[in-house]
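User: Please predict the structure of the protein below. I'd like the answer in structure-token form so I can feed it into my own downstream comparison script.

Assistant: Understood. Taking the following sequence of 406 residues as input:
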Amino acid sequence: MNKQRQTYQQGCIQRKKRERGSDVWILRYRENGMLKSLTIGTVLEFRTKAEAQRSLADVRADINNQVEVVTFGQLCDRYLKEGVPERHTTASALRSMVKYRIRPYWYQERVSDMAKNPMAVEQWIKGLMTTPRRKDEKPRPLAPKSKGHTKAVFHRLFECAMRWRYLEVQRNPMSLIELHGTSKRTRRIVLVTTEQYQALLPLLPHHCRVMVTLAMCLGLRVSEILGLRWEDVDLEGATLQVRRSVVNGHVEDTKTLASEDELPLHPDLVDVLRQWKEAELPVNGWLFGNIDTGKPFHADTMRQRHLNKAAAKIGLPKLGWHAFRHTYRARLSELGLPLEVQQKLMRHASIDMTTKYGRSSMLSVTRPANARIVEMVMPKAAQKSEKGTGSPPVPLLLPRRFRRIS
């Protein structure tokens, strides 16, 4: 690995006491972000600091000829080889971000210099723009959530830099970057109503219709639906076991350990799965296998070919598979179920994730509560309530400046 030599450094000379023998002069300097020291000699050899300093010309030259630093490009290269997570979905996104967004701009910078100036990285992230895919498309500011992901990758890279001793172990300098609104959504979450769901099903092919039913009624991720095998389904016991996920043809473990769980099947869902099993030939044991490839279908292809087109016919915006999981979470909330039950059915690792997940309509709770307040303060409501009692309505008093002068 080619390394770039660090600029010439002077270091500092300090006098160090010893329990036995005379004091010594020590040269302290940094190498690849690590603090190092070198004994020059005793106070008997160099009585003053100036004498010790004059003797260091050759020593400093030797140190600076040996000291090398790592560039950010070299850090990225090692991270892509050794630091990327094993999970294919995560690894693919990280490799793409590091190779095509981060490394090309910063590859010549020294890791030690970047650690001293996190503000430069912050300003660069704030100014990131999208890459147009069409000729008539213009770049626009990168979404706040994507900027937050970019900061997280920088944070991880500098964690690796300290782990690999390219930097002295310290507080991660990328944690000083301040970005606001990174958790704010730019697109509104789509919740599918019962009427929309029932109108959508007849417009879909059989295999896609069964997948949408499982997503709507169990809140499964599409990767988990595609990862289902018939051995995971117990039609007699009315249970379904989530054991794996399939993303872009790659079979992997579930997203989290909590995601791998057994779910109950309603009798109506058992009938749907039994009819599907009787209607289709098995494809290598997969519930939703492509007969041409012998592997599970691709979620994006099915969304583009079937789901989006059917959704457009019933007036829905671009509909993604995850909208059904958001809808499932909203329905659980509207039923007023305990958070522990919601967490279990959503298969979240923590209740905190369940409370933050998606959105739900609270009109069934907020409308009657708000109506009580309105009826207490609105004059018309007060007049209606006092009809038949014989008492005159209470007049609405306005500030003096708004009263009509007679």
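That's the full token string. The chain has a mean pLDDT of 82.
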